[in-house]
Amino acid sequence: CRAVLPVLALALLGLAAAAGPRQTPALELAQELAEELWSAGLPGDLPELEPECRSLLAAFAEGSAALTGCLGRRARPVRLCQGCHGHYRRLLAQYDSIASAVGNSSESHNCAKSILTSDRLQIVVTLSEFFNETWEAANCANCLKNSSEGLSNSTEEFLDLFNKSLTCFEHNLQGQAIDLSPNNYTEVCKNCNETYTKLNDLYNHLQRMNRQGGESAHSAHLCIDVEDAMNITRKLWSRTFNCSLPCSDTVPVIAVSSFILFLPIVFYLSSFLHSKQKKRILILPKRIQSNANLVNIQEKYS
Amino acid sequence: MANVAKKVSWSGRDDDEDGRAGETTPLLNGTGPGAAGSGRQLTPSPFLRIGQLSNVDLNEDIHELETEVPRQRPNEIPHNEKLLSLKYESLDYDNSENQLFLEEERRINHAAFRTVEIKRWVICAMIGILTGLVACFIDIVVENLAGLKYRVVKDNIDKFTAKGGLSFSLLLWATLNASVVMVGSLIVAFIEPVAAGSGIPQIKCYLNGVKIPHVVRLKTLVIKVCGVILSVVGGLAVGKEGPMIHSGSVIAAGISQGRSTSLKRDFKIFEYFRRDTEKRDFVSAGAAAGVSAAFGAPVGGVLFSLEEGASFWNQFLTWRIFFASMISTFTLNSVLSVYHGNAWDLSSPGLINFGRFDSEKMGYTIQEIPIFIFMGVVGGILGALFNALNYWLTMFRIRYIHRPCLQVVEAMLVAAVTATVGFVMIYCSRDCQPIQGSSVAYPLQLFCADGEYNSMATAFFNTPEKSVVNLFHDPPGSYNPMTLGMFTLMYFFLACWTYGLTVSAGVFIPSLLIGAAWGRLFGISLSYLTKGSIWADPGKYALMGAAAQLGGIVRMTLSLTVIMMEATGNVTYGFPIMLVLMTAKIVGDYFVEGLYDMHIQLQSVPFLHWEAPVTSHSLTAREVMSTPVTCLRRIERVGTVVDILSDTSSNHNGFPVVESNPDTTQVAGLRGLILRSQLIVLLKHKVFVERANLNLVQRRLKLKDFRDAYPRFPPIQSIHVSQDERECMIDLSEFMNPSPYTVPQEASLPRVFKLFRALGLRHLVVVDNRNEVVGMVTRKDLARYRLGKEGLEELSLAQT
What we know:
The structure holds two protein chains of two kinds.
Chain A: H1 4-19, H2 26-39, H3 51-73, H4 80-100, H5 111-116, H6 123-138, H7 153-173, H8 186-213, H9 224-240, H10 250-274, E1 279-283, H11 293-301
Helix pairs in contact in A: 1-2, 1-3, 2-3, 3-4, 4-6, 7-8, 7-9, 8-9
Chain B: H1 3-12, H2 15-24, H3 33-42, H4 62-68, E1 76-78, E2 83-85, E3 89-90, H5 99-107, H6 110-163, H7 166-191, H8 200-208, E4 210-211, H9 218-233, H10 242-257, E5 259-260, E6 265-266, H11 276-295, H12 298-309, H13 315-339, H14 369-400, H15 404-428, E7 432-434, E8 452-454, H16 455-460, H17 464-473, H18 481-498, H19 508-529, H20 538-554, H21 558-568, H22 574-591, H23 595-602, H24 621-624, E9 632-633, E10 635-637, H25 638-646, E11 654-658, E12 670-675, H26 676-684, H27 689-693, H28 703-709, H29 723-726, E13 729-731, E14 742-744, H30 749-759, E15 763-767, E16 773-778, H31 779-783, E17 785-788, E18 791-794, E19 796-799
Parallel strand pairs in B: 2-19, 9-11, 14-15
Antiparallel strand pairs in B: 3-4, 5-6, 7-8, 10-13, 11-12, 15-16, 17-18
Helix pairs in contact in B: 1-2, 3-25, 6-7, 6-9, 6-10, 6-11, 6-13, 7-9, 7-15, 8-23, 9-10, 10-11, 11-12, 11-13, 12-13, 12-21, 14-18, 14-20, 14-22, 14-23, 15-18, 17-19, 18-19, 19-20, 20-22, 21-22, 25-26
Subcellular location (chain B): Membrane
Family (chain B): Belongs to the chloride channel (TC 2.A.49) family.
Domain CBS (chain B): 736-794
């Protein structure tokens, strides 16, 4: 009978996930399915899932389906944190209620135990871990307000500026095909420089603030939405419009460096020519045949 | 004046001729009045005549000798590698078992010896702790100062990239480097020149038994530590690991003596250890602690000491040294972990940490072994090239750049050029990589697209330690081959140019960096050739390249293998690293010798290698020894002793003591050996026979009196001996070492050598079959034979 429960849970989940996007009341469907299975000949006296727990599970399934859908749809361009934080928080709450819920009947049959830990696969735990890890990796906490919902002020500001820059880009590119030669973009570079620099500065500022605040290596990142937005803009700016700084100052750099590189040559030459060579005073050892020793040795061994 | 010819026949044997020679021969050191006096006195005895002639260091009676020597040599020659300097003396590793020693041993009971043993352990623990703390200090200061410098330069570059005028950034960088290095070089050149370089050659010499002046003084330590901080911050191609070994040794030498002569403080502790034997044991522990703090390699440290000072070894000492090593790395680890904010994490065991090499792709397979061996060959060749270039450079430096101010200027120029080369490389590089997280400490954007950094800058715009770790661990694709190639080439010449400057800095890290760069390049091209096979992770090849390059330059074997193994924290790498180091050493030795040995030789240090040159068996002690020998009689006139000691032309340190019976019929056989330092203490305390008879001496001299004077015995000039006292007699029999080691004249050179090396002797008396002193073998007599390109060659002695 232990083998049956995972199957059941899986089925429930799969169904719920499939049902989620279509906004069907998943709970009903799950119950339907459970009853179906029941009638298929499972013994009646099995330790079944409490109805209350079953509803909790179904809610979790629905929540995770919704979150998965949201994440998938907002993968490119990355808008995870902005779009899915509601789903994520709801899912967290659902998981918490599973973990803390106590069934009606007895202590041993509480929902947390039967849903979370009674089989090898522990799919609910795995799922919740996966979402948590994704959320951590995206570092969404960084651009959300503490505890309450909504984006933090700095993030709002950034996104605002980001939209402005994009609008500026669009404006200046109007009427031009994308495949024009690079030097035609100079207008964009000129006109949008201000906005872009502001955006870039703000981003750098945010990054610096973040690095000062956080201790661990992980929190060195900003949240993925902001990072991705910045990356897109930078790529447009530097690669597509080719607005990054040109290589400049070649002549003075060459002049200064060749001057410095020239100094050692002067130094060595002058010390070779002017410095007195250090001489060593030889000392003749007091030794038998000391003058003939070397000759002897060489005769002997050469 | 026909003494040379006569000496030859005399030492041939034959008493008769001996006697005549003795009577007619004026003293070789006849310049001093004392020598003349003693000569007169000694004429009755043929053997005491020898007394005037010194033995220990070869003396400098060039003028007299030259009149006789048929083949005249030039007085002055330019410095070359085939010289032995008179500046260096031996350490007295051999215990002088005189009566005072025996008395003291009798007096101290068993329990007291146990406290001595406990004290040894306490000292080792303190050595470890202090070495670790010094390493922490260096690390933290370097990190902060270098961080400050790089931030300033980076901000400046960022500013001028936008506005134009990058040549100002270049000037700023070069000036910053040059001025920091100038300070570092000034203190080394003018205050303590022995603190220059990595210090490993000096410690090698010390453990070998050569006393390098000033090498283990507190002042040296201070200069060394400040110097290494300044030269690393100054952006030179140097590391801070080699100097740690020197620092550890100084700390050990200082603590074990319980006082500092630089500070003129005596803490009145550890007095028992105030002699060369004990001090040297502790210095080996200090060197081990230094290695262990530098690389996080306690076992490597012990093996380093073993490799360098192995002739004086016992397992108790080994165990103590290991203890000191462990304490050292533990101290560093805990202090740094507190500093980095995760107390008791203990994850940074050494100054350089190679990072972890335990991921799947870092493993190696049997097919890669031949590739590693090939890398060893490359490392050997490149190492030999490095050494050969450095040899010429060092020779030039010794000959022409010997004035301190020139040395400072040279160091500044190198610093400025290093910055310039780095800047130009970064400026010209078009290798841009996306910034991934915070793995790059100081990302320089320059002309890269926004959000990208210049990959050449990770290598040049960073402290060398960090660059090494980056090369080991950056994910594949972080560097393009062109960048790595240019970097290797430039850094090779820079590092070669830098080593030997008058700054205190090590060569370990630059070698590792060069090796890591070409190793990574090798790995990249390998994975390119094999169409990206799984096993070609460039980081692994960077490690092997680093090992090969380091092995090719320094040619250390066992200890280096273990150090590398411990620094990577991966025992399975032991085998490939060993193979790589072995190959590099074999290949490199085919061309030139190791960097440290080369520098020891260029400094004209009388260094004794493991064994005598292989083809030297037909040389006998008679040909090797110095003769004639300045002997003292057992009961000697004070005036004679003073004159012998104050003879400036011969600063000998050991004098055989012979029977004082002036009767010619009786043989004046060898009775013992007395050291200059002992004689000076005797003179200072005026231990004269006459005074003892008059009961003028308050107390008997104890061994403590000799220890108190150690290690800087006053010069003879500072001891006043009145005219009356000159006529007194001094009885040496109590103070001399009654059983010095002797060899017969027929002993072969390798035999003498083995005795000398294994026992750590300073003087070895050569006697004939009647126990008469015929000669004296010292370190310089043995060290002058060397196996050169065309067989055995002999080095000349020179004053430096």
